[in-house]
Amino acid sequence: MPTISLKRDALFAALGSTYTDEEFQDLCFKFGLELDEVTTEKQMLIKEQGDQADAELSDEILYRIDIPANRYDLLCLEGLVDGLLVFQGKKPPPQYKVKKYEDCNSLHLTMATAQIRPYAVAAVLRGITFTKESYDSFIDLQDKLHQNICRKRTLVAIGTHDLDTIHGPFIYDALPPNEIKFKALNQPKELTAPELMELYSNHAQLKQYLGIIKESPVYPIIKDKNGVILSMPPIINSDHSKITLNTKNVFIECTATDLTKAIVVLDTVVSMFSKYCTSEYEVQQCKVFSPDGTYELYPKLQYREELINVDKANNYIGISEEGDKLASLLSRMCLQTAHEGSVLRVRVPPTRHDVIHACDLYEDIAIAYGYNRIARRPARAVTSGGQDPANKLTEQLRNECARAGYTEALTFTLCSREDVSTKLGVKIEDVPAAHISNPKTLEFQVVRTLLLPGLLKTIAANKKMPLPLKLFEISDVVLLDENAESGARNVRRACGVHCGRAAGFQHVHGLLDRLMAQLRVRHRDQYALRPAQDPAYFPGRCAEVVLQGKVIGKIGVIHPNVLTAFELTNPCSAVEIDIEPFV
User: Fold this and answer.
1) Do 235 and 336 sit in the same domain of this protein?
2) Where does the record place the B5 domain (predicted)?
């Protein structure tokens, strides 16, 4: 959940009212937000840096407000103020409109961009008037979007430029790094792309974005018709086209790997700051040409209509209100609504991309109505809750393992193919493992089929601990199963490993006997050990655990080859059994 910091006095001035901290906290609560903290810049920095904080920072009061992760329209002062004023009935919802495009500001994509960031959208804000506060808010909103919906610029990167310093039409291209050279934002001279990547490798903010394009054979750039580079997304803009307080016309471009996210981001930015344009809430569209010559107009700023049933809305929320009242509640949430018979006709604005289903509208009705005003009522179905039997048994066995002197470990559900095959002396083709189709790392290629490899890796990572090391884990493994709906099934297992100067087979055997005793299973009558061969265990020192004629696991001394594969130097013994037959 993102948090925005707003100066209290500027916020109250924009709202046209003053509040005590308690009154504003109550207003936020009614609007579905939370006033997280009342602080100052100095207090925030002291909290982060201690005594090294700058003593000259402002003591102006800041409100830190938690914003729902899907409400991108509330991530800046402008959007929050509009939302609160509409909610209070002090102004109607803004009406966004688009102005006809100008061919000179079109954006043309080349074929090469498909190799790196294949999508782009663009828009123009005409006759904008910035103050220091609105300029800072403009930059801060871009940063908030970059950190949230843009997923740290991997999905979308925003570029803003002074339109009066550049000449369209514009070109979105991708070139080899050595062919890119320009003066980056706030830099004293021109540098090539590799030089910029080296320069920003130690930059506090920008270094985190370098990996997005660093290994690519081409880097994306946007340039005007004269070849002047505007930006190298998603890293840095050009100093030539930087916006200032004196900027009057802003060209906004968003390059992306996800077109839908790019449209949402562009709609959000232009909607929030079109209020400062000469023609309020008006945005000029741009033609964006694909490599095949077709074009789309952006921003969309589309209004759409949703229909919901009055009775369903009341039933889902647990209230009983007339249709006119529900329409009024939705209109307070910037969703202009008309009541027609048993139906609510909702006009969803381009700022509310979070509304994708009728449930989202029900939620906004509940917020405007007030969650604390919704009457409590008994459940219509009589039920009794209880712990899942498998989980209950798991908790009981965990306690017993701990009493036996074993320490619980929680290992990764995903592992490498070698962990469940080669290192255990078997072929991956013979292992019923569910494979990850596009693994991001070699460490996480399959879902584990055994708990043993995770415990052995844990022991290997704790070699400095005094011996013996006795670890256990009770958790799920996943096995392929053609009869299961998903093609695989979860199996709850318990595993214990003893690592010491000697193999310690008697210790894991004792752990098994203790668990069986607690499960009221008598040795020999109901369970027994039967000699077995398994490449993961030492020959002649491996046995199957048999429960009423069915094999439920194995016990034995780990093979030296397996120990070597997991980088262990001390002998180990292990037991691993299914516990589902006991549920």
Assistant:
1) no
2) 301-376
**477-532: per-residue pLDDT in tens?**
999 988 888 889 999 999 999 999 888 888 899 999 999 988 888 766 788 899 99
Among the listed residues 366, 386, 382, 365, the one whose alpha carbon sits nearest the alpha carbon of residue 374: 366
Q: Give the separation between CA 253 and CA 250, rounded to whole angstroms.
A: 10
Q: How far apart are CA 297 and CA 258, in angstroms?
A: 17
Whether 85 is covered by a domain: the verdict is: no
Distance separating alpha carbons of residues 198 and 201, to the nearest angstrom: 5
138 with 263, same domain? yes
Name the domain count of the chain. Answer: 4
Residues 467/570, Cβ–Cβ less than 8 Å: yes
Domain assignment present for 157: yes
Amino acid found at 559: H
Interhelix angle 77-87/132-147, nearest 10 degrees: 90
Q: State which residues form the domain around 561.
A: 389-582
pLDDT band of residue 37 (cuts 50, 70, 90) is confident
d(CA 323, CA 329): 10
Work out the angle at residue 362's Cα, subtended by the Cα atoms of residues 361 and 364, and round it to the nearest 5 degrees: 65
Name the strand (E) or helix (H) holding 316. Answer: helix 310-317
Give residue 367's Cα distance to chain centre.
25
Report helix, strand and coil shares of the chain as percent, to nearest 5.
Answer: 35, 30, 40
- Rounded to 5 degrees, φ, ψ at 225 are -65, -20
